[in-house]
Write a structure and sequence with these properties.
About 40% of the residues lie in helices and about 20% in strands. The chain is an alpha/beta fold and about 325 residues long. The chain has 2 domains: about 1-95 and about 245-334, Isopropylmalate Dehydrogenase (3-Layer(aba) Sandwich), CATH 3.40.718; about 105-240, Isopropylmalate Dehydrogenase, CATH 3.40.718. Strands 2-1-3-12-11-4-5-10-8-9 form a 10-stranded mixed β-sheet, with helices on both faces. A two-stranded antiparallel sheet has the order 6-7. A hairpin with a 6-residue loop joins strand 6 (about 120-130) and strand 7 (about 140-145). Helix 1 (about 15-30) crosses helix 9 (about 275-290) and helix 5 packs across helix 6. The chain is globular. The two termini are about 20 Å apart. InterPro entries: IsoCit/isopropylmalate_DH_CS (IPR019818), IsoPropMal-DH-like_dom (IPR024084). Keywords: Oxidoreductase. Its EC number is 1.1.1.41. It holds the Pfam family Iso_dh.
């Protein structure tokens, strides 16, 4: 049976790593067909809008999308398209694994953790966001809800249970931000009581960052709010070799979007030298979501084997090969 997914090729290096990823998926024989949709700068040029209605309709219909990076301006310009997609489809769970790979520049060899980040509320709602007329004062509100906190913590515990993980750490700043962060922590404690077989730990966010750098092996599943999760998940990517090895899943009740979490890297766009691993690992998360865990594991194993052999690696991994050569080396090990 064929499963149709929406494919967004993205901006910058996005089309190159997407072509490489689809090449490997086709060699994998996962029974996927692709419905291509536009978003980002490519959509703006072609349709006059960043997220065309046809793209939203495609995701709604197929319920699963694989997405390359999209441009997000810093300090001005249009709002994040990624944030807009998460809100549009209520993709409340952002799932970011950080797992050590062989022959990387990482300082660690034993990292195997998952960050589960609340994806739809918190600081990124930016409610009432404004800058005073004189440019001297800026304001942005933060809102945390019982519903949002409960479902993300429950997702983390269910993920731990289904994957055989033993510990969930709730990360907060309730010692200072007693309202929003305090609510999240209190609800995390309530949910944790329903999972007595899984160890529950509370940790303040600044201590978490220090502990991740000192002893990352102590963590298993981390669950936290939107802003803290964004920062911590990138820190965790740094523990295992960088964003080139960092996939992300955005999960909701009725849709899911899988992606590489790094940026568009416009400085190397079009050169065919970008590392496709993050998007390939996002595709592996997608295969798990689609009920194909064996194909997901085959894909991850092929990536590991290629890195162990140092075969056709891209420059960021210590090689001098191109994007598609790396993808072909991975495909040959499926």
């Amino acid at each position: 049976m064929t499963q149709t997914i929406t494919v967004i090729r993205g901006d910058g290096i996005g089309p190159e790593i997407m072509d490489a990823t689809l090449f490997v998926l086709d060699k994998l024989g996962a029974g996927l067909s692709y419905e291509f949709a536009d978003a980002g700068l490519a959509a703006l040029e072609k349709h006059g809008e960043l997220i065309p209605a046809s793209t939203l309709e495609s995701i709604k219909k197929n319920k699963v999308a694989l997405k390359s990076p999209l441009t997000t301006p810093v300090g001005g310009g249009f709002s994040s398209i990624n944030v807009a997609l998460r809100r549009q489809f209520d993709l409340y769970a952002n799932v970011r694994p950080a797992i050590s790979f062989p022959n990387t520049k990482s300082r660690y060899e034993n990292v195997n953790l998952i960050t589960v980040r609340e994806n739809t509320e918190g600081a990124y709602l930016s409610e009432g966001q404004e800058v005073s007329a004189d440019g001297e004062t800026a304001f942005s509100g933060t809102r945390i809800t019982r519903k949002g906190s409960e479902r993300i913590v429950r997702y983390a515990f269910e993920l731990a249970r289904s994957t055989g993980r033993k510990k969930v750490t709730a990360v907060h700043k309730a010692n200072i931000i007693k309202s929003t962060s305090g609510l999240f922590l209190n609800i995390a404690r309530e949910v944790a009581a329903n999972y007595p077989e899984i160890e529950f730990q509370e940790m303040i966010v600044d201590n978490t960052c220090m502990q991740l750098v000192m002893r990352p092996e102590q963590f298993d599943v981390i669950v936290t709010t939107n802003l803290f999760g964004d920062i911590i998940s990138d820190l965790c990517a740094g523990l295992v070799g960088g964003l080139g090895l960092a996939p992300g899943a955005n999960i909701g009740e009725n849709a899911a979007i899988f992606e590489a979490v790094h940026g568009t890297a416009p400085d190397i766009a079009g050169k065919g030298i970008a590392n496709p691993c993050a998007l390939l690992l996002g595709a592996a998360q997608m295969l798990d979501h689609l009920g194909q865990p064996q194909n997901a594991e085959r894909l991850r194993n092929a990536i590991v084997a290629t890195m162990e052999a140092r075969d056709s690696l891209t420059g960021d991994l210590g090689g001098n090969s191109g994007t598609m050569d790396f993808a072909k080396a991975i495909a040959s090990r499926l």
